[in-house]
Amino acid sequence: MSVFSLSDAQLDDKLAQIPALAGPREVEVLSGGLTNRNVKVSTPNGVFVARCSDDNAEALDIDRDAEHANTRAAAEAGVGAPVVDYRPDLGVLVIGYVEGVTLHNDDFARDGIVPRVAAGIRQLHDGPRFVNAFDMYERQPRYRATCRDHGYRMPEGYDDFAGQFEDIRVALAVRAEDTVPCNNDLLAENFIDDVDRLWLIDYEYSGNNDPCFELGNTWTECKLSIDQLEELVTTYYGRRRPEKIARAHLQAIVSQYGWALWGFIQQAVSPLEFDFWGWGMERFEGAVEEMRAPGFAALLDQASTGDDG
């Protein structure tokens, strides 16, 4: 049964089996969560978030054990919420509730937000390594095979851009980066601002990865301008690095082309009434626009041969 189909009584029964959540409690459903049903649980002993996972982890290539371990590592790095309990038998990860304001795309127009985001990302990347790797060039073929093997709907022409996707891989390989612990899914709502710092939440797709994938993915998911991409990358590296800006730009295209397939899979398997097709098409069309842009070849050249000082 999908976690989204659980009755309130069935959900409460799950929560009652977790010691930290036992006893009198108030449960509030949190917004968001396309593969988790997230609830805020208030008890006499504290306030927690129970991340109740759905049963589609295999189709979406989610490793719940890695998510748990990496959430702990992010907490150790000082940017992630503390882990309270993990019950894979119940499909529940319990973390501490973080008081603060959830960011939205419009918040990135405020002065000072982009540098704070860059600092938060850098703090995560400088923290303990994660237990697994994340590489969209390995994940995208698996997502593509899932769509093919199950006959899931895909846009005509998706595979027409496999050559450009490969061109990016070759360009990125010339100056391959050491991997660092990355969230890999930093949409605006995965940042929580408590004034003193930004918290980074949701480690479903986390893994050690090229830091420029994190930067590029954040740029495209938060719908930042090209100037904000430059600010994000420059702040992250401490000085302007044209080849890193180009690398992050290319990794944003990689992100969009790969994550689009996630949307097409979700359209077929998710019980939620959500426009996953539109979500996937937005990313696919964004990737295509970038691959067709006059400056695409220059990005490949800058990322592979540009002076990194």
SSE topology:
Blueprint: H1 8-16, E1 26-29, E2 36-43, E3 46-53, H2 57-60, H3 64-77, E4 83-87, E5 92-96, E6 101-102, H4 113-125, H5 136-150, H6 162-174, E7 180-182, E8 191-193, E9 198-200, E10 207-209, H7 211-221, H8 226-237, H9 242-269, H10 276-292, H11 296-305
Antiparallel strand pairs: 1-2, 2-3, 3-5, 4-5, 6-8, 7-10, 8-9
- The amount of beta strand, in percent, is 5-15%
Q: How far is the first residue's CA from the last residue's CA?
A: 54 Å
Strand order of the largest sheet: 1-2-3-5-4
Number of strands: 10
SSE string: HEEEHHEEEHHHEEEEHHHHH
Overall structural class, as computed from helix and strand content, comes to: alpha+beta
Gyration radius, rounded: 20 Å
Q: Tell me about the largest β-sheet.
A: 5 strands, antiparallel
Mean pLDDT: 93
Shape: globular
Helix content: 40-55%
**Count of runs of 4 or more consecutive helical residues:** 11
Low-pLDDT ranges: none
Describe the structure.
This protein has eleven helices and ten strands. The N and C termini lie far apart (54 Å). The strands form three sheets. It has a five-stranded antiparallel β-sheet with strand order 1-2-3-5-4, sandwiched between helices. It has a three-stranded antiparallel β-sheet with strand order 6-8-9, covered by helices on one side. The protein is globular and about 60 Å long. With 309 residues, the chain is α+β, with helices and mostly antiparallel strands. Helix 4 crosses helix 8, helix 7 (211-221) runs antiparallel to helix 8 (226-237) and helix 8 packs across helix 9 (242-269).
